Amino acid sequence: MNWLKDHPRFAIFFCLILCACNNATKIDEENTVQNITWSEHIAPIIYKNCTPCHRPGAAGTFDLLNYDDAVRTANKIKFATQTRFMPPWPADNGYSHFVDERTLTEKEIAQIKSWAENKMPRGDSAKEVQAPVFYKGSFFGKPDLVVKMQKPVKIKGNGTDLFLMIKLPYQLLADTFVSYVEFVPGQTKLVHHVNGHLLSYNADRTFNYMSGETILEDAHANFKEAYEKMNITYTDKKEPALPTLMPNVVYYLPGYTPPVYNEDIGGFKIKKDGAFFLKNIHYGPSNADVEDSSYINVFFRKTKPKRPVFETQMGTFGISAIEPKLIVPANEIKTFHTKVTLQSEISILSVNPHMHLLGKTFWAFALGPQNDTIPLIKINKWDFRWQYYYTYLHPVKIPKGSTIHAYGTFDNTDKNPFNPFHPPRQIEQGEGNESMQTTEEMFQFIFTYMPYKIGDENISLKR
Ligand code: HEC
Prior knowledge:
By secondary structure, this protein is α+β, with helices and mostly antiparallel strands. The chain is built from seven helices and 21 strands. The longest helix is centred in the N-terminal third of the chain and has 24 residues, at 8-31.
């Protein structure tokens, strides 16, 4: 210590280091051993970030509904959070924020670890937060109408993808306003994606849309024939060639819940006679014969919709071209771009980036007329399994004349663990429904929006 006396500046320096260390130990202590309890620390994390999916009828592989569930699976929980495998949230929350963001802070991850490694104390149960209560069979609550399939889908255990068209007809007492529609998958591990429309029928029709086939192999190009078999159109000369067809009313991907806004935003009218028509429902390969009875929940609203919500898509099948053409050569990592310039002012509500197994990163933003950047979404590590509709906290105003850009990078090398082919082979965007096959590629940026109104930036989109 004599040396320190001779060098006072170093003494100060040492003290700083020691003090810093002391502080660090204090923070660590707070986070470790007996102090971390289920009641005070862990339950709020699990209930907010895990239980929505880890409960009966949801996609998670086991239930996390209470203390006992968490104790039983503590090691798994620790592992899944340490590796950042769970909760799944591909969007970069340093870039843009969304409603119901499910991400854990470093501190929360450390707390779970320490709790799991220290005998998982319950703590003071009086301090415990209430477990969230979910209505069975819906993410939201009791639906006003449940539309079921007339018969279940039979899935063969032959290990191949299955693409179907399914009609779910209904009859109401009167025309009704609808707030939103929720698709509830039966075979949660097999239902891959669903894209469904709404068919509406006039009272003077002469054919019975309630009869006819309800499940058919995807018709690909020959929809006319399929519609005839399903008895939904083309059978009556008095009707137009197609019934009123409202696109994208039913949508589903694993982990997806429909965006739900306040009473002022969204909603539409349905006629008393109609059908949900799943124009493509894609089941992934199954190794056993099983049946699926997915269904649709409809939530009514009392008032006429005030501000309808529109949806558009850029890229594959969309309003803007992909540059260059979507061809990903074997053993290459390649980036594609698509852009669109807006002719009017809009408020974007939610976004849905879409790619398949070769996806690596995704990035979308708008460049305003003054070249100012409006961040939209960034995904640094694409995961095919989690393709949410991300809803912004507030509508994002995009001024007239702005250009929306989206960049998608695809990894067609052997290093991509999701590459469906080894050795890799050239992958392209398929024609029509072929693109829906998971082994083909798509590059889409889908967004919902409404024409901009002053004050939109202040509306909360939280449900
Ligand atoms: C968006 C829905 C969702 C959320 C939120 C979610 N999970 Fe999961 N979880 C799943 C699904 C689906 C699987 C199966 C994934 C697979 O097999 O690829 C899964 C798998 C797991 C597994 C591994 C499977 C097993 O049986 O061992 C663990 C552990 C897990 N989740 C824990 C958690 C924890 C802890 C949280 C919260 C911090 C959480 N999950 C949040 C949907 C979710």
